[in-house]
Design brief:
- Helices cover 30% and strands 13% of the residues.
- It has 404 residues and is of the alpha+beta class.
- The chain has one domain.
- The strands form five sheets. It has a four-stranded antiparallel sheet with strand order 1-6-7-9, with helices on one face. It has a two-stranded antiparallel sheet with strand order 2-8. A two-stranded antiparallel sheet has the order 3-10.
- A hairpin with a 4-residue loop joins strand 11 and strand 12.
Length: 404
């Protein structure tokens, strides 16, 4: 399907400039009568569906609606969303408690109606099918409902086959720098969400504020995270930068024949104040289109030019059926959550890096991949599920000094 984003909706701060959104935020603030909210809760309101804000205004006019809203803002679940998205664990996420609204528990508050007051046909998707099993490494492409899908083992092992197909589609080059050879096949929606129950909990966290789109996001992952449409080729360094929320990719144009997809690359300024700092909702932070990270530059391997925020990246494929381009909808989800990560503010308690191997013992399945270690400058073999092990620990030494 041909798609093109309007010029006024392009860039990290597009939603923050929307006059309709800004007016609704003022209405919510007025009903709060001077009550300040945690900035992480504000961040979710800056990026959510407009219909969610409209519903929130209506519900706050109901009896006890304002008090309920205050309680929900103070118990925002944005940290849980970002922890899951960035493949980190926090005390709350390790307890195995059921997913709750991004603003609190939908069962205990009138504001649970926000997600349901404006149902969209897009949210009416079939129940997720049980993930099918494979008994051995796939020798050829398996088709499961949609192009690029591949069945998962009961242990949900990362598929080295899909990783190789992703790199083949991208001509063995990083999609941003065009650097060849030393590349990673990176997930758009993280591998940590391979489990059906975990995905369900994650999408319930998103549903309250993105009810118009969450159905489509879920539908693209009906068969799990292991599909070519959920993969991009990065250099190892850019892979880690993306996982840390240092940049985002906005889908801006797609051809009708499925052979071309244009993205825009943006560095994202990280809000340094703690997420629990309280702010006035209409006090809008800056999310600039021209961010530069201090001491961090990337360049094109083709002509050497510095790649800045706003650079257009075009992905192409010769065969949309066998080597489909990344999913527009999953890239849209990525674009929202990368900016939510940047806007929410610093964590108020230390996050614990969650290795993908922590989920289950995925060893012994024969999924080996040769990867390039930038630190040692050497190639090494390791199970594909270990490729991102200790991902955040590897970047901590150089991310923290990156002022913007």
């Amino acid at each position: 399907m041909e798609r093109k984003v309007d010029d006024d909706k392009i860039g990290p701060g597009a939603e923050l400039r929307d006059p309709v959104r800004l007016e609704l935020l003022k209405e919510i603030h007025k009903r709060l009568d001077g009550f300040q909210v945690p900035q992480k809760a504000q961040a979710s309101l800056l990026l959510c569906d407009i219909s969610a804000l409209e519903s929130l205004v209506r519900i706050m006019d109901e009896e006890l609606g304002v008090d309920a809203a205050k309680a929900l803002f103070l118990n925002s679940k944005v940290d849980e969303i970002v922890a899951e998205w960035c493949q980190k664990s926090s005390p709350s996420s390790r307890t195995g408690s059921p997913a709750r609204s991004v603003l609190g528990s939908p069962k205990s508050s009138p504001l649970s109606k926000v997600a349901l007051s404006n149902p969209s046909p897009e949210t009416q998707v079939p129940e997720e099918p049980e993930e099918t099993k494979i008994l051995s490494r796939p020798s050829k492409r398996k088709r499961v409902d949609s192009p690029g899908a591949i069945s998962l083992s009961s242990q949900a092992s990362r598929s080295s086959y899909v990783a190789k197909e992703c790199k083949n589609r991208d001509s063995q080059r990083c999609i941003i720098t065009k650097f060849a050879s030393a590349t990673d096949a990176a997930h758009i929606v993280p591998f940590s969400l391979y489990r059906k129950d975990r995905r369900a909990n994650f999408f319930e966290l998103l549903r309250v504020l993105w009810s118009e789109r969450v159905g489509q996001w879920k539908h693209h992952l009906d068969n799990g995270t292991e599909s070519i449409e959920n993969m991009l080729t990065f250099t190892p360094t850019l892979h880690r930068c993306h996982a840390a929320g240092l940049f985002g990719l906005q889908p801006v144009e797609a051809s009708g024949d499925g052979k071309s997809l244009k993205l825009k690359f943006y560095w994202l300024a990280q809000r340094e104040t703690p997420g629990n700092n309280v702010v006035d909702i209409p006090d809008i932070p800056t999310l600039a289109d021209d961010v530069e990270l201090a001491s961090t530059k990337i360049s094109s391997s083709e002509d050497g030019h510095i790649i800045n925020s706003g650079e257009v990246i075009e992905l192409t494929t010769s065969n949309p059926e066998t080597l489909p381009l990344p999913s527009w909808d999953l890239l849209e989800l990525q674009w929202i959550l990368q900016r939510l990560t940047a806007l929410k503010g610093a964590a108020d308690i230390p996050d614990v890096t969650r290795n993908e191997s922590d989920e289950e013992d995925l060893g012994g399945l024969g999924y080996d991949e040769e990867i390039f270690d930038e630190g040692s400058g050497e190639w090494r073999n390791q199970g594909a599920d270990v490729e991102e092990e200790n991902l955040h620990e590897r970047i901590n030494d150089w991310i923290h000094p990156q002022a913007v």
